[in-house]
């Protein structure tokens, strides 16, 4: 990676609150804990309300603490504008439900986040159809329809960590005038900048690495000024999944250490991947660092670094074995979500759900790990102890 880019990203993450409204020199942003902003004249009120996407009028729309975070995240993604939401799903729902109309079709490429597909299923009742390609084909051309209005990517996917050729997919969509969205949560805006590959909109769950401390739920959407404005009026204002000022302050606190945390997640995950790949009870390890063949070239071209979310397959993929492994862990805790300081383990395996796993393109015995910041040695020791008991 270009080191100037790295320096710039660090500056963006660590920028202090500045400007004329900071006479005290506070380095952390003030939390604008207010629902509304009163204006000195009715004329000014009318003017600001006419452009609520850029003026603080009411905190469901624009709030200065949240706006500061939005500005940071837009810069990191190399987008023109960003809008924060109460959750990642808030951002995803605002894009899908806010911009699509009856008769539109959406193409989902890769193993997309489960609730995103559940929302797509829900939108069928409003006449929005979709096709999901959990096992991405070399050419998605045959699945693009005349009514395809949106191509939704996730790269890597967050179960099998498969990587897409994002620039090629973005170019293919653009030729046909179709908008593209990518869920960029795995890589964070530090390690992958999909807008520079021609993708129109990037979404993140800020709950994961961007927040990083498992104490906040949030989401963000980044793209061109025009596209973000469209989602603001049609998806954010109307559905109301607004991020609060307090949540924005917590996400901003996380953002300041994002570069140093990601370096450590990457170091630990690299060592964990190596240890698992060499273990006789592990059938396969999934992480972009161990991609091979054509995927390896994609990884090198598209990523500036790795995160700590990976998965692996137990040799014996029965529910009992998975449960025995999980219960034998102690440093890795059992739970949903990922990207926090703490190491976590989970699995899509349930008693008797083999058919469902096959339909989702997931192998039996799949365990997903979020490698935290405790250090590679105790993390590997915990995994090896648990594998010995399987
Ligand atoms: C968690 C997650 C989301 C949803 O974000 P929330 O903040 O939980 O609503 C979306 N995409 C991916 C890949 C996720 O892991």
Please, could you describe this protein's structure?
This is Aminotransferase class I/II-fold pyridoxal phosphate-dependent enzyme. InterPro entries: Cys/Met-Metab_PyrdxlP-dep_enz, Cys_met_metab_PP, PyrdxlP-dep_Trfase, PyrdxlP-dep_Trfase_major, PyrdxlP-dep_Trfase_small. The chain is α/β, with parallel strands linked by helices and 390 residues long. The chain has two domains: 4-256, Type I PLP-dependent aspartate aminotransferase-like (Major domain) (Aspartate Aminotransferase, domain 2); 258-387, Aspartate Aminotransferase, domain 1 (Alpha-Beta Complex). Helices cover 40% and strands 15% of the residues. The protein has helices spanning 3-14, 42-49, 64-77, 88-99, 114-123, 166-175, 188-191, 225-239, 245-256, 258-277, 294-302, 319-328, 354-359, 376-388; strands spanning 81-85, 105-109, 129-133, 148-154, 179-183, 201-205, 219-223, 282-286, 309-314, 333-334, 344-346, 366-370. The strands form two sheets. The chain has a seven-stranded mixed sheet, with helices on both faces. A five-stranded mixed sheet has the order 8-9-12-11-10, covered by helices on one side. Helix 4 (88-99) crosses helix 8. The two termini are 40 Å apart. The site of pyridoxal-5'-phosphate (PLP) has 12 residues, from helix 4.
